[in-house]
Batch of 2 targets.
Target 1
Amino acid sequence: MVETKLDNVLEAFLTYETYKGYGHYGVTGLEKFRYRTWVENNNPGVDCTQPTGYIDSKIGTSIHMLFEEAMNASDIVCQTERVYECDIAGYKVGGTADLILYDDKDVATIADLKSMKAFPAKKAYANEETDKFIKQLSLYAYMHRKGGGKTNKVGYIYVVVVGWTARDKAIPRTFRLDLPLMSDAEVEEYVSSRIEAIPKDGSAPEFDCQSWMCKQYCGVRDVCPHFNHHEFKEGYVRPSN
Ligand code: SF4
């Protein structure tokens, strides 16, 4: 097949990043595996995203943009894409909440929109693996309160199932999870424990990746000591099988 300029444009489109980070530590980054973060930090320039990851991220961004437009056009009292930055347990943390809903007493309910494929959506619908959502929403709620606002004790995750088909009829195409949020003390303990899990002397943190991620999703596996059973060496090239 002959490669054309349009192929390059499409490649560039897929990798074009609109994400903007806030604070020294991003809210969603805190939940990432510490071991993988360490591998990434030790391999600057290694692309950590698989091609399917770029496509999924484009789908997610498009859904978020449409959702934001629809919310802003509605008469629901809310803020979309609310940016927070705050000191938590001595660390500068920041992030962007998708949606803040306000009641008539100005109490904010923190909400986030998640586009998911059927498999993770089924887990979320069964209330499995929702801890990471609770942490994310709790951090935004904490920062909202530190800014002087009042918050609901429950946060919402709105799930949109991408590629829903009749085979997935056990779950709705879209649903809401109502999640009880963490206290201030729990948020502070979570933030410091996640940040302190990366040793300051540059050595590897305790291994905490889930092994199913290695082959399917991890873009740094070629340079990962765990995956290669090999410690880092300058210029190390993984032997071919
Ligand atoms: S290859 Fe596996 S163990 Fe290594 S960083 Fe990636 S997910 Fe973690």
Target 2
Amino acid sequence: MLGTLVAVKPATWFVNAGLRTLRAFVPSLARPDDTFAAQWLSGHELDLYQGMDRRDRDHACRVARALLAAHPGAPATVVRAALLHDVGKSAVPYRAWERIVVHLCRPWREARGEAAGRDDTGDAGATPAVGLVGLLAWHRRHAARGAEMILAAGGDPEVAALVRHHHDPRGFAGAELIRAADADT
Ligand SMILES: [Fe+2]
Ligand SMILES: [Fe+2]
């Protein structure tokens, strides 16, 4: 597994993975820039953001900032979707060891040629995760679940669509920007 990761990921990914691991176990190290997020989000979308774990808010802000650094003229809907791209993870408590396993397994699955986006855009999954296999299946559906949360809250359908496709951006140009910023953050 490690050999596969070394082959497919740049050095910055390992640095970021190490920092994410640290923040996963010590949530107080996460520094979400909620003021920055509130400059882009309002109403129900801001409520959803504020309902996320501080580690996920930290990650969301890093992804949105990376996206803006690479694409300063990115549409506001894309930036808002970047801030909410992992909101589907907030539906259930997300323990530190689960964060590490999920973060490590995604590039490994992608390197093995599995369709990373297949489950992300399908059924949102009504059944909570049970065991490691259940956890990974539950996680794979977080994009669809996040999109449904945004729609259910009365959020922007365009933002919801970008969130639904943030791991499978084929045909969604804005979602590709989110996926690229997310990949190494
Ligand atoms: Fe995601
Ligand atoms: Fe993410």
